[in-house]
Amino acid sequence: EQPSAPSPIAAPLRELPWAQLNFLHTTDVHGWWGGHLQEPSYSADWGDYISFAKHLRDRADADGSDLLLIDTGDRVEGNGIYDGSSPVGKFTYDIAKEQKIDLICSGNHELYKANSSNAEFYHTVPNFKGNYLASNLDIYNPETGKLEPLAARYKKFTTKNQGIRILAFGFIFDFTGNANNTIIHTVEDTVKEDWFKEAIRDKELDLILVFGHVDIRSFEYATLYSTIRKARWDLPIQFFGGHSHIRDYKIYDSKSVALESGRYMETIGFMSIDGVRTGGTKDVPVKPQKSKMKFSRRYLDNNLFSLHHHSGKDSKTFPTERGVNVTKTIDQARNFLALTKRYGCAPHDLWVSRRPYPHKESIFSWLEQQVLPQTIELSPRIQEGRKALVITNTGGIRFDIFKGPFTKDTTFLVSPFTSGIRYLKDVPYKSAKQLLKLLNNEGPILEMMEKEGTWMKSPEHVAARFRPNMFAQEPDAEILEPGFPQPQPQPQAPLWDLGHDLIPGYTTHDDAGDDGDDTLHSRLIFYNVPNCIQSTVGFSSSSAHPQSQPKRPSSSNTEHIEHVDSTEDDPEKVDVMFNEFIQKWIILALEYLGEEVEEADTESFRDGMSFTEIMKEWVKGHWDIAGETCP
Ligand SMILES: Nc1ccn([C@@H]2O[C@H](COP(=O)(O)O)[C@@H](O)[C@H]2O)c(=O)n1
User: Fold this and answer.
1) Are residues 273 and 379 in the same domain?
2) Tens digits of residue pLDDT in 364-373
3) Domain finish residue from 282, 307, 336
4) One domain, residues 452 and 556
5) pLDDT digits (tens, 9 = 90+) for 138-185
6) What total of structural domains would you count in the chain?
7) Whose CA is nearest to atom 13 of ligand 1?
8) Which of 327, 359, 622, 626 would you label with 372, given CA atoms 20 to 30 Å apart?
9) 326-358 burial, b for 16+ CB within 10 Å, e for fewer?
10) Among 134, 116, 34, 25, CA closest to 81
């Protein structure tokens, strides 16, 4: 772990369900190679993961089983090690490649910008030569300009010890927000391709493995499952997914399951299968597929207490030379980038999902009530007496702020993106004031987003559309102030009786039940958030701004542009300001409201200064307590 990482806290653990064929799975790492330096439960780093995988590989070699490592994309954007260097990603590729990953693919974050997809072409694909798959992804070769698959469409291989013959595909969901140097073929189109149909008909297979940057409860995986199952009624199909940043496990049928392993190096997913037919090796005879196969999953908290336990090692025997070297490389990169440089001191925690919105400890309330208005009110147009509505998407905010030092690292954890704020001058207020409802509630804009698969919320929150019980119910207004709902202790399995005080953390409920997490935790409550929040700037405090503090979001299809109160103080026109990432949706929404606006009418705020910089400047101006200690 990193030198400043907090030590993990001992906790009751469930064992690894080790079997004939085993997998370790990471997804949505988003550059968190250094692990979590403020959270003991997730404080192991990529170097520790390298050591851990080595011990498990040795175990497989010793008992004749197999172990495969999988990563399902979104390795970039979300941490200073990636976003804080110039050019971005300077250290990322050399750190990532030190792990021996058997199957790897791209996520959407590798594809938002041409420079990151080209970096896949130049670095990740060759670094994982033969293991990177791109079943539905093409790139314009930066050398020749020709469109070609980013990597092989599929791969057939035989496992080292059991001789299991596996056909693997590496997908990305039907993403449409990519830069124009890549092309994504929809999954629906891809399964109709001759090469796909031919590959799955291969008779010399023991298992089909579909991994991808795809929500395991998505239409895309449902399509792949039904297509493959129709062709191969009895073959085991193992899925690994990602993108929604949650721990989840789906059972498709008695021979097909899917695992999703969280986000940000918080979770190492473990999966095992027993009863797979073996093609036979010199040491293992040919064995038929068992009529009753066994699939098991475990979500490991990524900390050394867990990793030592599951590898049967201790602090002396766990670190491998390669792992230690990678830990050092990460530390050197962090120092080079001065990620611990302090910009201010956060007076209390601010949460993305662990408090409802609005709430005094919601990061969105902080942005809405302090950062955005206090920054934008200084701009010349507001100083001249104009008013503005400032709208930003909640998905651009990626992580919580903990009480204490707010560093360069924190800045990128919270807001890694380079998008700035843009504005439309003098929009009729009668339309502008309807915008937030249109962006947040059901209606044409949301329907279009669903169709396109582009979202304004963070992936965790988007995932809730397939998982209706993911979040706590909207809390009553009374419990918002002065306190907030306390996590309830959870009645738990017998390990609870060992006398441990359980640490709050993930308590995953999935298709196999409640026993997936390796660490027994007390339950954390998560709350849903809207797509967008809005600050009002330049209005007198007595004016009513009905949308800036939403009450319960409306669920009625017809309510998205109705019932917005008017007051006598309503201005005739306001500036509509917004995060550049949602410009397309702002324009569409205004058109829907009857305004004639187009991209060319928008202007950049403060010469395109990124929202990340804006937040950093605010922290320096408001939370800087030079000389004072910061807890
Ligand atoms: N420049 C960007 C890029 C993305 N977002 C937000 O992130 C969401 C996607 O995140 P995943 O980790 O699931 O891929 C996207 O829906 C946006 O909300 C952004 O704000 N700015």
Assistant:
1) no
2) 999 999 999 9
3) 336
4) yes
5) 999 999 999 999 999 999 999 999 999 999 999 999 999 999 999 999
6) 3
7) 459
8) 626
9) bbebbbebbeebebeebbbbbeeebbbbbbbbb
10) 34
